[in-house]
Amino acid sequence: MAREGLVRDLVFYKTYHNNSANVAIHAVFVPGILLATLRLLHEVRAGGVSVADGVAAAYTAYYVRLHAGAGAVAGAVLAGVCWALHAGAVPLSAGQAVALFCAGWGFQFVGHGVFEGRRPALVDNLGGALATAPFFVLWELLFALGLYPALHAQVQAAVDAELARGK
Length: 167
Known about the structure:
By secondary structure, the chain is mainly alpha-helical.
């Protein structure tokens, strides 16, 4: 079941991100947007816990449900970011976080308009796109490293079929 969900999510997102230049833009700016978002949400706290901690925990739980190994890697990265935020080790002001957030979205829209030639996934499924984007970036890295070749082939074949149908 979890594997079906993983394939479904990766195919959904990859269908909108099949151009290498657009994927590269997303590989840079999705983590930047996530960092900026967590930095801003870190300001909202109750006791020693921030909203960023809750968001990171929710992403981790979702990703682990989809794939235990990759989800654990994503969770470790998110936990590290949250730890660094609590330790004051992220030299990013709120204003800089807003600028990074806006620039990240701007570059992604350019990537879709100029390179992909297709509207962003969030137009068709906002929640799915926001939930999947960071994990997609991790999976693109794992695939580029030659890991999970059978899954990569399965996802790409499904994406090619979707694109051939004009989706």
